[in-house]
């Protein structure tokens, strides 16, 4: 009997791994300067006029592809989007390792960056939207290209 290959759409993830994957996607496709705007409670809001002019001037991050991000940025975004308070634990770090082993995240680091690995999200917008839908999170509201 032949086995069928498992597609990424059929992967069932633990609850916090879904949030980690969404946070990784946001870290890969949003510029660092937008983090304060999207993830801080008292961030300054842009006026409608400045939104219009800046949207036409910038290049799409989705067309440029995913960018590498450090672990601390991933965790900062994760803790700001998750609904309840979570203490940093080995479980969270093991779930990040699981996402890497499932090839949903790519890990890049050099010998000089052993303490702070860098990651890159390897999933599509459609996949992250389906994952975000299962946890009731609207990912498009937090993506720089869609604001």
UniProtKB/TrEMBL annotation:
GO molecular function annotations of the record: DNA replication origin binding
UniProt superkingdom: Eukaryota
GO (cellular component) term, any one: nuclear origin of replication recognition complex
Domain Origin recognition complex subunit 5 C-terminal as annotated: residue spans: 13-143
One GO biological process term: DNA replication initiation
Pfam family of the protein (one): ORC5_C
Full protein name: Origin recognition complex subunit 5 C-terminal domain-containing protein
